[in-house]
Every structure is written in C-alpha cells, then in structure tokens.
Amino acid sequence: MGGLRGKRNSEAPHINDSSSPLNVFLLYFAEIVMLVVATNRYYHDHLDRFDEGPSSLPDVTEDEMLVFLAITIQMGHCIWNILTDYW
To answer: Helix, strand, coil: what percent of the chain each, to 5?
Structure first.
C-alpha cells in the first residue's frame, strides 16, 4: 500500500503547496485559447449558414470563457431548484 502519495513532480512542476486554486484549475484548461477560438468560429459559421449577416455581439474572450467554465463547475457543487438561479 506504500508508494507515492499526492502530486508527482513530473505532472505539474509549477504547482506546489502554495499554489492558488486558480493555478490548479488552469491545469485542466491550459488550452483555453483553443476553446475560445472554436466557440467564436462555430458562432460565425452559424451566422454564415443562416445568412444572418454580421453579428452585433462581440466575440467571446478568454476571461468570459473561464467565468463560464467556473460557473458550470460550481453548479455541480451548489444545487438550486431553478436553472436561472445560477445565472
């Protein structure tokens, strides 16, 4: 039953005991730029497909995507009766 416990140094060398929860969260979403680019591309492709013309809405930013992911994860920890209570 012995062996290594906790984090292995090779998995995340920049994470240590003093790392913030945000640093650990970002390990799972290191490629946030790819999510943002894909989201914006999908939206613009949708507009093109339905010939709705240019959007008045700005593109999604990295900060907005991180907030969306954080809220989505938090929804699993804080259960409300109505979906609109989360937003």
So the answer is: 50, 0, 50
| pLDDT tens sequence for the chain (87 residues) | 455 555 555 567 777 888 888 888 778 777 888 999 999 999 888 888 887 677 778 999 999 998 888 888 888 888 778 877 776
Task: Please name the amino acid found at residue 18.
Answer: S
CA geometry: angle at 20 spanning 24 and 63, to 5°?
Answer: 70
Tokens for 31, please give them: 């490629």
Q: Is 87 helix (H, G, I), strand (E, B) or coil?
A: coil
Distances (CA, A) of 85 to 2, 46, 49, 71, 81: 46, 28, 33, 12, 8
What pTM was computed for the model?
Answer: 0.63
Q: How far apart are CA 22 and CA 20, in angstroms?
A: 5
